[in-house]
Amino acid sequence: MSQKHDNAIVLFARDPVVGQVKTRLHPFLDQETIFQLYTRFLNDSIEKIVRVKNADCFIGVTPSDLSGFFSRLKTERPIEVFLQQGKDLGERMKNTFQERIKEGYHRTAIIGSDSPSLPISYIDQALAADKDLVLGPSTDGGYYLIGMGRKLVDVFAGVGWGSDTVLTQTLDRLKSTANSLELLPPWYDVDRPEDLKFLQTHLGLMNHCGSTEAESTAEFLRDMTF
User: Fold this and answer.
1) Under CATH, which architecture does the 7-191 domain have?
2) In angstroms, what CA-CA distances link 187 with 64, 118, 183, 195, 220?
3) Cα→Cα distances 99→105, 130, 150, Å
4) Could you tell me which of 196, 215, 199 has the C-alpha nearest to residue 34?
5) 63-96 pLDDT, tens per residue?
6) Is it true that the peptide bond before 185 is cis, omega within 30 degrees of 0?
7) Which of 150, 56, 52 is nearest to 107 (CA)?
8) Strand order in the sheet with 7-14
9) Which residues are registered as beta bridge partners of 13?
10) Closest to 190 (Cα-Cα) out of 45, 6, 8, 2
11) Domain extent listing, the chain
12) 73 with 79: CB under 8 angstroms?
């Protein structure tokens, strides 16, 4: 895909395979239901990045792209799909930023696929920022978005990925550098049964207010009883 915009928005996603996605929702939900739910998360996340203006769209897939889900995508705008490279999440994000910087993008933002209700305005804010590093704090102690400009801010090594102190550890590493930081409004990921229950309630209330955010996920959850 040739570069068309100044910025890049990257969705980090797992290849949707039954039994290999959203594992912390089992046994609260059966594996097939979890798989169907995760594909809804992906549909909403992909729809979201396609709506981001002045940004080329990428999807970084792990651990493989064998399911064929991403090769079957039909979207209004082109999306480049690549395999994440690195031994852990930090190294995979670092390599992704390095590649986008090498390709000449002015700013790059990475989001995960665990926040289908994330407002697109938060992504726009990250791409409009003038700070070296942008983080979107997640209520679980991590972050739902990380963004950088043309300079790589190396805050990835020595972080306990998957723990509830990822954000704190990242901020501590940043203190030893001269890089500037912008924090976005806090939001939430959906990893555990209690997160899913909250998402169902949240999307229901948003629907009553006329919002169409995370429409695919909202439709799937509408008639589910937990």
Assistant:
1) Alpha-Beta Complex (3.90)
2) 28, 7, 11, 12, 21
3) 9, 20, 11
4) 196
5) 999 999 999 998 888 999 999 999 999 999 999 9
6) no
7) 150
8) 79-83, 55-62, 7-14, 107-111, 143-148, 133-137, 181-183
9) 61
10) 45
11) 7-191
12) yes
